[in-house]
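Reply to dn_fold:

You asked what the input looked like. This is it:
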Amino acid sequence: MTEKALRLGTRRSKLAMAQSGQVARTVQQVTGRPVELVEITTYGDTSREQLAQIGGTGVFVTALRDALVRGEVDFAVHSLKDLPTTQPGELVLAAVPPREDPRDVVVARDALKFTDLPRGARIGTGSPRRMAQLNAYARTHGMDIETVPIRGNVDTRIGYVHGGELDAVVLAAAGLNRIGRIDEVTDFLSVDTVLPAPGQGALAIECRAGNTAQDTALIAALGELDDPYTRAAVTAERSLLAALEAGCSAPVGALADLPPLSAPFERGDPQAEQVVKEMRLRGVVGTTDGTRMVQLSTTGPVPQTHDQASALGRELATEMLAQGAAGLMGERAQ
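and this is what came back:
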C-alpha cells in the first residue's frame, strides 16, 4: 500500500509554486512518500496596498501557518525573508535548505547596468530597504534617480520595464533563478552597493512542533534538508532585525557570510580547499530617501549554535542603535 501523500502548503504565485515544487521533489526523495501541493491565498497576495503600508510582517505567512495549525497541511514552504522574527510555539522551523544567491539584481531597458542609467531614471521597487540604499548610492556617486513604489509578481514588475513605464526594476536574484528568468538580469548589484533583506535567497520549511509521532518523524525527515551554514547566517541576520525591532518592510538590510567561501571562486579555483573559521555580519538601516544611513559590520567565529548566531546579530544591532539606527526606521515608503 502506498503511503498517504504529504500535503505541502504554498502560496499560489509562480515563484512560490516553483520554490515549493523544488522542495516537494527533495522531500519525496528523502521520505519516499508522494508530496502534493496545497495552494493557499494569503493576505499579501490579495491586498493591493504597498507592503510598507500593510505592515509587511507576516502578510504572506499567516494563512499558511493557520492551515498548518489546523492540520490542513503537513508542512509549508516560505521565503525566509517573509517570516516574522518571532517563532510561534506550536510550529517549528524544521529546515533551512542551502541558500540561493542573496543579491539584488537590476532588470533595465536597453540592457543597461545600474550605474549606466540615464539622469532622472525611474527605478521600480516595493522595498523601502532597496529605496534607501539605491538613493544613498546615487547621492554619493552623483547619480540622479527616482525610486518608484511598485507591487506585483515578477511578470508584472518586469512588464513595467518592457512597457516603457519604468527604466528599471530591482528584484531578488534568487527568485529569478528559481523561475528560470535569470537571463533577463542586466546587472547584479554588489552587496557593497545594496545589502539584501535578512534571509533573502533562503527558504524556510515549517511544520507542527512534535506533538504526535507523525509530527516528530516529519521534523526528522525534513531536517535532512537543513544546511547548517545557511541556518547560522539567517539566524544572525534575523536576530539583528529582531533586536532593531524592525518588521519585514523596514528599510533594514543584513547579510551574514563566510568570506573565505567566495575567495576560491573569485580566484577561478572552485576546487580549492577552504577552512571557514569566521562569519561576517553586515547591517544597514537608512531613510528611504538615502540621506541618512547607519551601516556597520562585525566578524566572529562561525556560530555553532542558535544562541551564538543570535548573539552575533544582537551585538551588531546594539552598535547600530548606538549610532542612531532607531530614528531611521520610522520612515515608510509612501
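The CA atoms of residues 15 and 179 lie 6 Å apart.
Hope that clears it up.
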